[in-house]
Design brief:
CATH class of the largest domain: Mainly Beta
Largest sheet: 5 strands, antiparallel
CATH topology of the largest domain: Immunoglobulin-like
Radius of gyration: 35 Å
Distance between the termini: 92 Å
């Protein structure tokens, strides 16, 4: 009696060998559960009854597929979690609306009460520290004398009014700092307070705070007021 060996080999997507024939698989680059079960069924149907497929190999194949399927499901779950976290961050940032943020900038804008405020950061001690607020036409609208200061952050503020109580400025002002140390001029940096009017969060984009200084990343806010 002659027995024809029709043993099939379960293969990954690309080619599947059944008997002596090689069949190209579908164009899909993934093997889903239905395709896996179809291949396994074909393997059982075409195996040599006198030399059946090793059950150990079959169990190993099933375990491998289960592992891959589990990883795929985990990736889907992680994406959902990431989406929820992003939504939570938007909600957190939305609670900042109506508050003010201190950000690195040399431009000061009026807050809700009309004040201009910020901080000067000195890398070393300096004497006669001064802040000049200059309008768009190059006119100095306010001089703020801070005197001698140690290294660190020095706050400044102005109510936006002239000596007679009238409003002296309503728009953005350039902040210019002068400071002299024992070794000459001290290179100071400035941060200013900006009101947060809204939160922008486009689909697939990063959350941004809407301020008079433009769009600002929440991470760029040094402090909230």
């Amino acid at each position: 009696m002659t027995v024809t060996n029709n043993t099939a080999t379960l293969a990954l997507p690309g080619t599947t060998t059944v008997g002596t024939a090689t069949v190209k698989s579908a164009k899909s680059s993934t093997l889903d559960q239905q395709a896996f079960l179809k291949l396994m069924t074909t393997q059982l149907k075409t195996q040599d009854p006198f030399a059946p497929v090793d059950s150990t190999q079959m169990v190993a194949q099933m375990a491998q597929f289960s592992s891959v399927a589990g990883i795929s499901e985990m990736n889907t779950s992680l994406k959902a979690i990431a989406s929820d976290i992003a939504g939570s961050r938007v909600g957190d940032a939305a609670s900042w609306i109506g508050r003010s943020a201190l950000v690195a900038s040399d431009t000061a804008t009026p807050l809700n009460d009309g004040f201009y405020a910020g901080e000067v950061s000195l890398p070393s001690a300096a004497g006669n520290v001064g802040v000049s607020l200059i309008d768009a036409n190059g006119n100095t609208v306010k001089e703020i004398a801070l005197g001698a200061q140690a290294a660190g952050s020095v706050p400044f503020s102005w109510d936006g009014k002239a000596a007679d109580g009238s409003v002296a400025a309503t728009g953005p002002l350039k902040v210019v700092v002068t400071a002299a140390g024992k070794d000459g001029l001290v290179r100071a940096t400035t941060s200013t307070w900006a009101g947060i009017s809204a939160v922008q969060s486009p689909a697939g984009g990063a959350t941004r705070l809407v301020t008079p200084l433009g769009l600002i990343a929440p991470a760029d806010a040094q402090r909230l007021g």
